[in-house]
Amino acid sequence: MSLDYQPKWLYEVPSPSYVVEEGRLKHNLDILKGVQDRTGCSILLAQKAFSMFHFYPLISSYLKGTTASGLYEAKLAHEEFPGENHIFSPAYQDKDFPEILSICDHIVFNSPDQLKKFAPMARKAGRSYGLRINPEHSTQPPEHAIYDPCSGDSRLGTKLSELEKALAEAPQDEFLYGISGLHFHTLCEQGAEPLAETLEAVEEKFGKYFQHLKWLNFGGGHHITREDYNLALLEKCINKIQTKYSLKVYIEPGEAVALDAGFLVATVLEIIEATSDNGRQANIAILDTSAACHMPDVLEMPYRPPLMGSGEAREKPYTYTLAGPTCLAGDTIGTYSFAESLKPGDRLLFGDMAIYSMVKNNTFNGMPLPAICAVSDNEDVEIVREFAYEDFKMRL
Ligand SMILES: *Cc1c(COP(=O)(O)O)cnc(C)c1O
Fold first, then answer.
1. Residue 178: pLDDT band by 50, 70, 90 thresholds?
2. Which pLDDT value is given to residue 109?
3. What is the pLDDT of residues 274-310, one digit of tens each?
4. Is 148 in the pocket of ligand 1 (CB under 6 A)?
């Protein structure tokens, strides 16, 4: 994204706060709806990436539904998002399953054993259910293994050999305990080319079973709203499966829904200057926000988030390493340069802070949680939620 953005709301919102702009969200939703309209597929919001339910009514006017990683996300969708409610979990719990059945339309199981255990209940409740498969076709580099469901000993999805073994043991008067769909999810922040390649592997291995099914779910990880994404190839993949096999295609992106739609506003608290006397290599600016607490993917992925008005280290006259106020020595966000020196009270605006931010944050060190704000099309700011000491205490 361009780093020139200087919104007029920068000094109007609390600090720190996550700020999501409706206009940017709509930009993404228009692209996704275009795919839906042109292909007839259904697109679901993967809530684990973005659960800011303030925007669920808006998102539901574009997308067909949501998908959940467990009961709580499914409940949130049930309460706030009018649309289809899908769920996948590697293992469901007996105590949760009745409630899941009462609110979810689609249930995806991870293994034949899970199917065998829960399918009778799902069938009785009239739910559509399916099996997650592992096509054993990795399109991600080895250093990305933590995000690659096809890597090594992944627990995610049933391999062809496991499916064949289960089929031999399952009742023969129906296809594998009555499933009506298959689900694969193998991508992470990827284009349509790895999808096309994965789909070939899926078809080659599992295509012989498609005649028994009603739907195929392509999972998430599709960076559909990124500028260079090959929409035509995505639509070709969807159309091919839908026409060749008469299957309904679902995709369930998380990131793509709110990509570049949100920011994190932070304030400079303190400057530690590098001088020839103190032997420091770089100036440091301590902020009221923390990588560890408020942008955990900066340390986990890891990556350096875009910062409005900044340059690479030493590209502009004043360079600073930006850091959090926690005890963690490595709680640094990155090194950036600025046209002017930073001083306490200055506000900074990080980009790429809608997805995997507020859903993953924490109060380590007793850090206050950032407020959550929404900016409407005409730049009105709404403070959706603010947090206080109680939000720290109540979890302990
Ligand atoms: C993570 C995940 C998604 C969403 O992934 P994004 O990378 O946010 O698009 C969708 N489906 C499943 C099963 C997932 O685990």
1. very high
2. 98
3. 998 988 888 999 999 999 999 999 999 999 999 999 9
4. no
The pLDDT tens digits for 236-265 are: 999 999 999 999 999 999 999 999 999 999
Q: Are 130 and 104 in contact (CB under 8 A)?
A: no
Q: Which two tokens stand for residue 11?
A: 């000094």
| Per-residue pLDDT tens over the stretch 55-113 | 999 999 999 999 999 999 999 999 999 999 999 999 999 999 999 999 999 999 999 99
Q: Which protein residue's CA is at the shortest distance from atom 2 of ligand 1?
A: 220
> Is residue 185 in contact with ligand 1, taking CB distance under 6 Å?
yes
Q: Which of 258, 284, 301 lies at the terminal end of a domain, its last residue? A: 258
Distance CA 88, CA 119 (A): 14
Is 221 close to ligand 1, i.e. is its CB under 6 Å away?
A: yes
Structural domain includes residue 349 = yes
DSSP at 152: T
> Domain end: 206, 226, 258, which one?
258
Question: For the residues of 40-108, what is the DSSP string, one character each?
Answer: --EEEEETTT---GGGHHHHHTTSSEEEESSHHHHHHHHHH--SEEEEE-SS--TTTHHHHHHH-SEEE
- Tell me, in angstroms, the distance from the centre of ligand 1 to residue 188's CA: 8
Q: Is the CB of 45 under 6 A from ligand 1?
A: no
- Number of neighbouring beta carbons within 10 Å of residue 56: 21
| Tens digits of residue pLDDT in 36-46 | 999 999 999 99
Read off the tokens for 373: 């704000």
Question: Helices 22-39 and 231-245 sit at what angle, rounded to 10 degrees?
Answer: 40
> Does residue 297 share a domain with residue 242?
no
Å from CA of 95 to ligand 1 middle: 25
Which atom, in ligand 1's list, is nearest to the CA of 183? Answer: 13
Residue 71's CATH number = 3.20.20.10
- CB hemisphere CA count around 195 (13 angstroms): 28
Mean of per-residue pLDDT scores for the chain: 97
Pocket mutation for ligand 1, best pick of 183, 185, 195 (most atoms within 8 Å of C-beta) = 185
Q: How far is the CA of 4 from the centre of ligand 1 (A)?
A: 30
Pocket of ligand 1 contains residue 43 by CB under 6 Å? no
- Upstream peptide bond of 7 is cis (omega within 30 degrees of 0): no
Q: Does 346 reside within a domain?
A: yes
